[in-house]
Fold this protein.
Amino acid sequence: MLMCCGIHYRDRHDPSTGLHAPARACTLSVPDPSLLADAALPAGWSLAEEPRAYVGDQLFDLIDGGAVQYIDHGFQWALAATYLSESGDRMTAELYRMASPQQARDLFVARDFPAERPPVGDGARLQSGMVEFLSECCLVSLTYFSLGNDDSTLVHIAQLLADHLAR
Amino acid sequence: MKRREFLKQVSAGIAVVGCAPSSFADNVAPLSSVTASMTPQSSLARARGADPEAMTHAAVERLGGMRTFVHRGDKVVIKPNVGWDRPFAIRANTHPDVVKALARMVIEAEAAEVRIVDFPVMGQNPRNAFEASGMNAVGAELGIPVYPVCEASGFVDITLPGAEVLKTARVIRELLEADVILNVPVAKSHGCTKFTGALKNWMGIVWSRAYFHQNFTTDSRSSPAHWNHIASCIAEIQQRIPPTLAVIDALAIMKTGGPQGPGELENVGEILAGTDQVALDTYAVSLFDTIELGDVISIHRAAQLGLGTSDLSRVAIWDA
């Protein structure tokens, strides 16, 4: 486990080979929708539509001027998806792939704020229905829209997605 | 001349401009000179507390009440910041109770029509953004239309006579058809422009936002050329389509992580109202310990254009 600025990061050292094994997202030069589309979901949840991809300056379409901070930290591409539950709840996922784990980490730290720290991915933070976490070279953001105030479903799905991305 | 008639005449003139730009330009006085001469001194109303509706009402009353701005039979558009499909508590969007209070006052002023209009950020689902922000609930409670602009057909092309940077723009049609426009932003940090408030909220009326970021390249990244370009665009669209009144939601300000959030929030508990968007933004920036006024170029560009004053020593702050 590595630690930077109070945030813990997994060391993805593979003991069988002795090599560092990067997560799949970090090996892709172009966005692969399956990163969000194929994540395991709890019963009753499903993907609403094919994930959308944003490459380079197209990030402005997704987050307007917020894109500047990401591009300044080596942004490569993003994916955005929506999940729906049978009970009417909704969740959006945004995955931002940066050029390197270090740049993703720098961005994550630059965007840090006082928050709850659920055990999700690397250094997750939770605020009012939103979870952000690191997965090597990716910053992942999940937003939960529910009539209830229980964040347990959000944290659960975030953990499932973090596990999916770490493979 | 009523605002709607003026804007329609300008729009009609613009339709002709393609054929005869010089004759049109000759007939339109630069708005900057008019505005500058009308605002040698400025003022704003400030309400403090924890009840957004009551505070909004008090702030507008301090300016003389909604009837100062809205007359019987007017068509009124309320343009909050509904840019984001985010939970309300993230505070990326304007507080719905502020919008509700304004809509109520407009109705009481016997406007013929009031509607809530915005064009969320392109990659955000507009209908979801209106639902998540609470604007749909406001519309349902008061029986007024809410209009998340989704299609290009909801926009109209205009030109900006005399503008140095933003020569043309595609803007929300509803604004050109309104007698009164209420600009109702939320005060936030912003990754590009450092701060977003009354001035920056007008970028949300434009379809072609890519032009605002035109000088942003993967080579130069966030350079002074980009910052100056977007600041000029923001100021010039305000100059071309000036709001009648601005009311800033500074209840809980997003000090970092803006515009989309999440970020560090601080409960400031203020509502600001006035007609000088530059003064309002200047004051709002002073609420942030994370933003330097000198870094918010759009404020200075708007002041240069005569849209208001960024010198708070010249601004009377009236507590409501």
In short: The first strand of chain B starts at residue 42 and ends at 48.
